[in-house]
Fold these 2 entries.
Entry 1:
Amino acid sequence: MVGQRKLYMYIAIGIAGLGFLLSMIGGGGILSLLGGLFAGAGAVASIALMKFGYVVMPLITKQTKTSVYLEEPYEIPPSQDVIVKKSGNEYLASSFLSIKIYESSTEKSLEQNIAYNEYFERAISNMKYVTKISYLVYVEDISAKRKDLETKRAEAQLRLAREKEKPDPDVLKIDRYEREVAKYDNEINKMVRGEKPMGVIAYAMTTAKGISKEAAIAEAKAQAKELRTLLANSLNVEVELLTADSMLKCFEWEMFFPSSREGIEDSVV
């Protein structure tokens, strides 16, 4: 999957380069015009793939109905939101979801932590299938972290202010933005007190089976949708379905994960 996105990006860069050459040697005629169009289209496509590949790639594969084949026996269908494997006479399909946690247990009282654990146990007891929840924990670089936090807090405050100014503001968005701002405030205050910032990446994985590939995919998507609602409501966290590169990162982390802080920060989902 990562290789495929890079391949498309290199093709786009090549088209942009070819267009630039045509515009240079065209002498102001039709070749120059075509070259300019190719250069512009290639440049836009390469930037889109580089910055927004997790959005662009599923659109491309859906339109072309292209499946991505990993090492046997794994496959990513055109929707790029599940990973499929054939096992005997059945198919298995797995979905991955990111979990954004805005509150730390160290910032809660004993009563709040007890209540949170009860909510977690309640969420687990309501699950009808096996679910894997993974946490990657690391110590962040304090030198650049504070500046990054202050920038993110300012962006969250701006989003919050804009939402509140709307004639019909979204209460759920306001709640999410307020939790973002509070999270960044808490992290900045910790650094002021001399505490080392801890980074946490959390994600969930659910797997379904079916007698056909389509049946397994449909069941995995249904489980992921149910799991997303259950975790978000029970744990007061933001849960998003992962696709394309972000999904593949979690799949790779099931076997190997980055061994350094720099590696994990470059791989944040």
Note: Residues 142-196 form one domain.
Entry 2:
Amino acid sequence: MSGLKIFQIVEIICFLTALLWAKRLRNTVFIWSVPYMLIVVFTDVVSGYLDVSINNSNQWLFNLYLPFQHLFFAILFYGALNFTASKRLVIFGAIFFFLFYFINLISLQGFYDFNNYSFVVTSFLMILYSGQTLLRMVKSEKMDSIFNQPFFWVCASCLIYFTGFSVFFAVYFYYKTSDNALNQMQALYHIMTRYIITIHYLLLIVALCLTDERKIYDYYNNC
């Protein structure tokens, strides 16, 4: 089995940060980062073992991971978007995702190939929620600095991660009939995995380090 990749190391650091900060996160939506990051680390470690050690497909494992990913960020944005209409949007978005996820898993892309259609649905919704949250923070006249708010870093993390991979899958769908293009897409995917996922979890670490009850309380009062 090969050594850990840089993004896997950052994932482990993010999980340990959530674990160490659990007392501060306890009364906030960010407490869900503890079980979520455990699932992230478990998924990547097991998928690496399947891929490298026994040369077996690991795509089905990522398909099982997708609902947890959507649920975690939906919970964060449900907490960030403190208006009834916005919260309903998150709820309806989650219902739509899970309905589409099971249809896709059973009838469209199947269990053993990566369900990128479901990932694109999650990406669209998380980009939408991130934009809404950032817009409310920017428009707020009471907030001193958005950079001190953990939700800002969550939004930045999601925009980089979900936009980056959505663009990749869009290009992949366009060029998938060409073998040469597919080889280039695979090379690009490895580069994106190395950098975008690393940045994604580094920004989540920043969000976790900034989180405490007072800042979340101030966010709800000022945004």
Note: DSSP finds nine helices and no strands in the chain.
